Amino acid sequence: MGQGRLFGGMALGMLGTLMLSACQARQEMLSAPVTGFNHTSAAINWFSVNGAGGGNAGPHQAGGSEVCCGMVPRNWTPGLRAIVVWEKDPAPYAYGKWSERPYSDEWRARMAVHKKQYSRHEMTVEIPKYDEPGSLKVHFLPCNEVRVSATGITPGYPGYPYNFPMNMPEPKVCPD
Fold first, then answer.
1. How far is CA 76 from the centre of its chain?
2. Is 29-151 a domain of CATH 2.60.40?
3. Which residues contact 136 (CB under 8 A, 6 or more apart)?
4. Residue 115 and residue 94: Cα distance in Å, rounded?
5. Is the separation of the CB atoms in 54 and 34 below 8 Å?
6. Quick one: what percent of the chain has pLDDT higher than 70?
7. Is residue 5 over pLDDT 60?
8. Which residue in 21, 100, 113, 171 could disulfide with 107, CB within 3.0 to 4.6 Å?
């Protein structure tokens, strides 16, 4: 009977230690502005990162408007990922060539047809290691690729993981 209590006490002690460790393992989360960097000739009409809304980003535009707020862990951990959802307009300047008077009934009808070309995308991507957390920076690349960083380092500076040119060459046909 004494041996049963000993094992029971050890089991409770181990369970308590595991629970305490689990509580200590919780990451402190920080709010982080969300910014888009569009390296393509399409327009990004809207996007989100893990459900946090982003603004829009015109063709070959950096930054755009910063939107608040996504969440990032204070300390990076292996396997950290982000889910990015976005809508793309492949011909963002088409309406500038239309003969219809802007916002007329004819123009609106043509815009409805144009919007059928929009495409919606979703991708889960790894967030590269960072030492200091910063804003969520989303890079839209040709062929519906996307990258996300959460470092405090600004694009263009040493140590930033994705220093892509703003006007990236786009293949005629994207690989599957």
1. 16
2. yes
3. 32, 33, 34, 35, 49, 52, 70, 72, 82, 148, 149, 150
4. 11
5. yes
6. 83
7. no
8. 100
List phi, psi (to 5°) of 23. Answer: -65, -40
- The pLDDT assigned to 18 comes to 31
Boundaries of every domain in the chain: 29-151
**Interatomic CA distance for residues 44 and 59, integer angstroms:** 8
Tokens read off for 31:
């709010």
pLDDT at site 25? 57
Q: CA–CA separation, 159 vs 136, rounded Å?
A: 16
Q: How far is CA 45 from the centre of its chain?
A: 14
Tokens of 98: 């239309």
| Residue 57 burial (CB count, 10 A) | 27
Residue 129 has a CB neighbour count (10 Å cut-off) of 13
Q: Does 176 have pLDDT greater than 80?
A: no
Rg of the Cα trace of the chain?
23
Q: What's the pLDDT tens digit per position in 79-129?
A: 999 999 999 999 999 988 999 999 999 999 999 999 999 999 999 999 999
